[in-house]
């Protein structure tokens, strides 16, 4: 979200539009203004309620206390309610615009204990416009946590939820993108980091259409390279060793419906050529066959890779990217949905508790996570996104099931540390100092990574760029730039044909050859396959 006004306190959102059923996709005249979202409250039902505060932009003060302001669920017609916690004073703290795009918080005569982003409010505390835009955590009396961030003044009322949990601006935009994509008969490309829920979005795009037909999903990264073409397009009997019968392939199984191609960036070169032809002609030719067969398939592809970077490295065909990008949807990372984190926490916690045999609703959760723990979770950057959040909630739910009185903070500190730090603890028997829960730390630039740290991370990741980039806190693009700048490093795309042949002859297996050349096994296999060499 961008705060584009000079004072940093308000910006217009999308204009009003209408869906095919006549329901509004976006409320007219909706704006983003500073607001408060409840992320921790003794009454768990209230988590996710919010209140926009447009009066701040007008120069008026807002009092935060037991009695005001009043909050509402984003999709409810219920009556607004104040925080109404007996342990809060009626004499509240004051919020007021500081004239420079930020917000000034003043204690005055209020006895309410308040911390903002970990800093205790003594008399006054100033938040910059960037602090508001990024989201600031306010903890009242140690028991209620509020997220101060931009929120819409009016809420969308007519867009289906599509199975997506949350009401952030980012998830609302994603729901509108799903609605738009479902109306088109073109390939859809889903981009987003790992764990953001791209397959859930693909299913939503498919299911939003009338009479959607079959839905078939395939992870291209999990296919055996030399069998990938037959798996996708089918094969005639005798097409290859072991082909003792005709295979229909995924395209034929998805005829009349949707084929979801996950990890499209992992498609082998020969499959890319065949896939491009199928998208252009709406026909498939089985491996070993001569006859083409018509298919009516809606293709949805997904990737967390930088396909433009792969094109530059000669690993992905630009024409295929253009074909796949009939409609492109960016699935937002969880760190851009901070107000949804607490909503997802409750949703997952209820689901996991029921899995453990506890029939509970949000109101019946009882003692749960303290406000400090929820604040830490909201501030964490979630490199594994929603998938990582669900895994953390599962561990906490199991621990609570076994011992409801146990303090969850030490477990959270352990779970939210990088995997290599947890591995070091296990190897050395000690415990690293302090939790790795950074309050919205920015990604590192390539120049900030020393050469020895770069090589060590690549070695631990077996030269795979994705895990190495995550461990270093870099984007994939930044990692590739850093590799290019290092005189002793290169990617598989930069190997000569002779080096690949010699390495295979000398080391016997692709895995050993890739390790010796210090490149990823997957990249090495692609190059070897393109040369007609065995990559098994």
Topology:
Layout: E1 11-12, E2 31-40, E3 50-52, E4 62-64, E5 93-97, E6 103-106, E7 114-116, E8 119-120, E9 124-127, H1 129-134, E10 136-140, E11 144-152, H2 169-182, E12 188-191, H3 198-207, E13 215-219, H4 228-233, H5 249-253, E14 258-262, H6 269-281, E15 283-284, E16 293-294, E17 298-303, H7 307-312, H8 318-324, E18 327-330, H9 338-355, H10 371-379, H11 385-402, H12 409-415, H13 419-428, H14 451-460, H15 465-472, H16 476-485, H17 497-507, H18 510-517, H19 521-530
Q: What would you say about this model in short?
A:
The chain has helices spanning 129-134, 169-182, 198-207, 228-233, 249-253, 269-281, 307-312, 318-324, 338-355, 371-379, 385-402, 409-415, 419-428, 451-460, 465-472, 476-485, 497-507, 510-517, 521-530, and strands at residues 11-12, 31-40, 50-52, 62-64, 93-97, 103-106, 114-116, 119-120, 124-127, 136-140, 144-152, 188-191, 215-219, 258-262, 283-284, 293-294, 298-303, 327-330. It is of the alpha+beta class.
């Amino acid at each position: 979200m961008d705060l584009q006004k000079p004072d940093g306190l308000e910006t217009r959102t999308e204009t009003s539009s209408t869906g095919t059923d006549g329901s509004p996709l976006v409320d007219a005249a909706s704006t983003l203004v500073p607001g408060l979202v409840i992320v921790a409250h003794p009454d768990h039902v209230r988590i996710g309620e919010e209140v926009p505060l447009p009066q701040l932009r007008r120069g008026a003060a807002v009092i935060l206390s037991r009695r005001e302001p009043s909050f509402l669920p984003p999709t409810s017609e219920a009556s607004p309610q104040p925080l109404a916690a007996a342990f809060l004073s009626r004499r509240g703290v004051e919020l007021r615009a500081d004239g420079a795009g930020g917000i000034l918080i003043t204690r005055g005569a209020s006895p309410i204990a308040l911390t903002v982003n970990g800093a205790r409010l003594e008399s006054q505390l100033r938040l910059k416009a960037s602090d508001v835009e990024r989201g600031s955590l306010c903890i009242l009396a140690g028991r209620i946590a509020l997220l101060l961030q931009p929120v819409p003044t009016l809420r969308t009322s007519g867009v289906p939820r599509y199975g997506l949990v949350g009401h952030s601006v980012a998830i609302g935009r994603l729901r509108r993108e799903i609605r738009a994509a479902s109306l088109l008969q073109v390939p859809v490309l889903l981009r987003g980091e790992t764990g953001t829920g791209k397959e859930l979005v693909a299913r939503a795009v498919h299911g939003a259409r009338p009479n959607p037909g079959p839905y078939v999903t395939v992870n291209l990264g999990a296919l055996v390279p030399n069998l990938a073409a037959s798996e996708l397009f089918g094969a005639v009997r005798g097409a290859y060793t072991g082909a003792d019968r005709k295979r229909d392939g995924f395209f034929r199984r998805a005829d009349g419906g949707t084929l979801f191609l996950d990890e499209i960036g992992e498609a082998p070169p020969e499959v890319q050529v065949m896939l491009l032809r199928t998208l252009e002609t709406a026909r498939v030719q089985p491996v070993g066959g001569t006859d083409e067969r018509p298919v009516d398939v809606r293709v949805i592809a997904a990737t967390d890779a930088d396909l433009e970077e792969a094109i530059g490295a000669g690993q992905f065909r630009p024409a295929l990217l253009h074909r796949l990008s009939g409609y492109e949807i960016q699935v937002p990372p969880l760190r851009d949905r901070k107000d949804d984190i607490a909503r997802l926490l409750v949703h997952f916690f209820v689901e996991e508790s029921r899995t453990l045999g506890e029939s509970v609703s949000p109101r019946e959760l009882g003692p749960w996570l303290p406000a400090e723990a929820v604040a830490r979770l909201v501030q964490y950057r979630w490199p594994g996104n929603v998938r990582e959040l669900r895994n953390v909630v599962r561990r906490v739910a199991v621990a609570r099931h076994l011992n409801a009185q146990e303090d969850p903070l030490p477990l959270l500190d352990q779970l939210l540390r990088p995997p290599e730090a947890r591995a070091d603890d296990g190897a050395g028997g000690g415990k690293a100092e302090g939790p790795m829960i950074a309050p919205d730390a920015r990604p590192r630039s390539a120049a900030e990574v020393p050469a020895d740290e770069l090589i060590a991370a690549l070695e631990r990741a077996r030269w795979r760029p994705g895990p190495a980039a995550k461990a270093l806190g870099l984007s994939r693009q930044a990692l590739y730039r850093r590799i290019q700048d290092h005189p002793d490093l290169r990617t598989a795309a930069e190997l000569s044909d002779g080096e690949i042949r010699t390495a295979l002859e000398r080391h016997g297996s692709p895995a050993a050859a890739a390790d010796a050349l210090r490149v990823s096994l997957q990249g090495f296999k692609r190059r070897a396959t393109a040369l007609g060499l065995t990559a098994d």
